[in-house]
Fold:
Amino acid sequence: MSLFSMNIPAYAALPRFDLPTGSVVFSGFTEAAYSILFVNPGRVRVAPAFEIGALDPALQRVVKDLGEGGLDCERLHGYDFTHLIENSLTGSVPPCLALQTTQRSWRLWRVVR
Structure:
């Protein structure tokens, strides 16, 4: 095994949620941003894109909070996300999320307005 491939997750460990056409998915800055596009080619949009520094600063804060296990619903509601995919939330479920399904450590949430 190459040292370069040691941090690349196994394909089987990646989230493969089948999402409705037109979904706008927030995934934090994780491998889910890549795998969801492959599972739902041409049907969904994913944020953040692959250049986190180009994001709106408020959305950068949502990415940071999610990576640290939290989520501010007010910040998330400033955008048109329909779903959130993550494996990092801790504590109580934020009121703006409704769990749809899970795959291994990943959770697919519907964003509730």
The mean pLDDT is 88. The radius of gyration is 14 Å. Strands lie at 24-26, 45-47, 83-86, 97-103, 106-111.
